Amino acid sequence: MAEEGEANLDALFAHIDDELDVTALSEDAAERDGPQARVTAPSVAVAGGAGRTIRNILAAEFGVEPEQVIDFLRSGDPVDRLNTAVEAIESAEEVTKSEYYGQIVFVRPAYRYRLTELAMELV
User: Fold this and answer.
1) Residue predicted with more confidence, 98 or 19
2) pLDDT tens-digit profile of 85-107?
């Protein structure tokens, strides 16, 4: 299971590195495009750690600096760190979890029964 946890963490790291978060501006905001001001959908792209990013959310969750998030996630049990990180991401309204990683949940195996030697003799 540690291998699956590490694979999911790698996908999370790729999502952190590729993150480009769109944050809404106020209702009266407008963006400029070229020499003429034209009103477009009020949004601004936030990248490189500005605003509420996955890196910032995880830094707050784990109590580390944003630059230390990946090193922190690599330390300790990968499945436990991954599950905690995914819970924090899913509970945050500002970001969206990628489909390439997720929580790892252990399912109990089904009970298996077998007949004892005495039961086999009676059959």
Assistant:
1) 98
2) 999 999 998 888 989 999 988 87
- Number of domains, the chain: 1
Cα-flanking dihedrals φ and ψ of residue 34, to 5°?
75, -160
Burial class (CB within 10 angstroms; exposed 0-12, middle 13-18, buried 19+) of 66: middle
- Looking at the DSSP bridge assignments, the partners of residue 24 are 43
From the list 113, 114, 85, the residue with the least C-alpha distance to 101 is 85
Residue 87: domain span: 2-122
* Structural contact between residues 61 and 84, judged by C-beta atoms closer than 8 angstroms: yes
Against a cut of 0.70, is the pTM above it? no
Q: With both helix axes pointing from N to C terminus, report the angle between 2-18 and 54-62 in degrees, rounded to the nearest 10.
A: 130
DSSP of 63-85: TS-GGGHHHHHHSS-HHHHHHHH
